[in-house]
Write a structure and sequence with these properties.
Structural class: alpha+beta
Bound molecules: zinc ion
Length: 215
């Protein structure tokens, strides 16, 4: 399998180190690249597990190694052996990055076990409307609610990004200036991403296409 050129951006994306342009290009890309999407999910879990486990950040070597053993066990439950070997290398790299870029005071409260929120990880958002061809420009977009305290980011594109907005509701009204840009006969696609209270990506929808029929 040849390496995707976006792969190098994954860790930077998860650690919030990318420029605005790189970040948007990567977000646009990884939903359509199963390789990047899979790796993003895996590395996100690794990074968050490490960040949520302050024992890993303590000076004492024995504490660190026993915590690592626990982490390894935790990871083994959802990674295959081959993935684990890869993840081990990645985790070490990630730890090096974390030790150098994340100041101690930003480490969240102790929370080693996966939380309820994290079981949501990797799940999908169901788009409700529009999902079929429309007789006219849709005036609102609606999707299935995922839970409380979640911020949704919607993007509409026709090859390139037409509009992007965030909301805490599970529906959004299309502004008139965006409606004005959408024309009959054209195909559009839309997608919703969900972000948790700490700003981390917790779910994405598939990118759904609809066409505004010309009459
Ligand atoms: Zn890719």
């Amino acid at each position: 399998m040849s390496k995707c050129k976006f792969e190098d951006l994954i860790d930077g994306y998860l650690l919030n180190k990318l420029s605005e342009g790189d970040r948007e290009a990567f977000e646009e890309h990884y939903f359509n690249c199963s390789s990047c999407f899979e790796q993003l999910q895996e590395r996100d879990v690794i990074i968050r597990t490490i960040k949520n486990n302050p024992a890993l950040l303590e000076e004492k070597e024995e504490v660190r190694s026993s915590a690592l053993a626990g982490l390894r066990k935790e990871l083994a439950s959802f990674l295959t052996v081959r993935q684990l070997a890869f993840a081990g290398v990645t985790a070490l790299l990630v730890m090096v990055i974390i030790f150098t870029v994340i100041p101690r005071h930003q480490v969240p409260a102790p929370n080693f076990f996966l939380t309820d929120e994290e079981t949501v990880r990797g799940s999908s958002i169901t788009l409700i409307s529009p999902v079929i061809d429309m007789g006219q420009v849709p005036s609102s977009f609606e999707w299935k609610k995922l839970g409380d305290n979640i911020e949704y980011q919607i993007s509409i594109s026709n090859g390139e990004l037409l509009w992007k907005a965030t909301t805490r509701e599970n529906r959004i009204t299309l502004p008139d200036e965006v409606k004005a840009k959408m024309v009959p006969g054209q195909k559009y696609s839309w997608q919703v991403k969900a972000f948790g209270p700490d700003g981390s990506l917790i779910a994405v929808s598939s990118r759904v296409q609809f066409k505004i029929s010309a009459d």
